[in-house]
Design goal:
Layout (H helix, E strand, L loop, with lengths): L1 E6 L4 H12 L4 E6 L7 H11 L25 H10 L8 E4 L2 E4 L11
Parallel strand pairs: 1-2
Antiparallel strand pairs: 1-3, 3-4
Length: about 120
């Protein structure tokens, strides 16, 4: 099975999710270090859509500049997406994509649902 994780190595949940993926049998894993290789807008739209989330629901508010950028109240989905492309720390993590779907894996055990 092919799997991709959008990973932040500074995040404990992301590290634990990565460990689950790495220990899963028959998983060919691609790791996207999204802070170093920012998202393309189209990929964010696809991930959020496939995960059943809006950009606002996928917005990381703790430990991010979301408040300073005016994204917490009244910002449109387009404004949030544009900000996420410029500031990838705004994207909650980790997202995992497999042939079975896409999930925001918080808590990390959620990843088991798409393996």
């Amino acid at each position: 099975m092919l799997a991709s994780i959008w990973h932040n190595p500074n995040c404990g949940t992301s590290r634990k999710t990565l460990e689950i993926l790495q220990s899963a049998p028959d998983v060919e894993l691609t790791i996207h270090h999204y802070l170093d290789e920012p998202f393309e807008r189209g990929k964010l739209v696809q991930l959020f859509s496939d995960a059943g989330l809006t950009p606002r629901e996928a917005l990381r508010t703790r430990g991010s500049p979301a408040e300073e950028l005016g994204l917490l109240e009244g910002a449109s989905a387009d404004a949030i997406l544009d900000a996420m492309v410029l500031h990838p720390i705004l994207v909650e993590r980790p997202f995992v994509e497999t042939e079975k779907g896409v999930l925001l894996c918080r808590p990390q055990e959620k990843v088991l649902g798409i393996l």
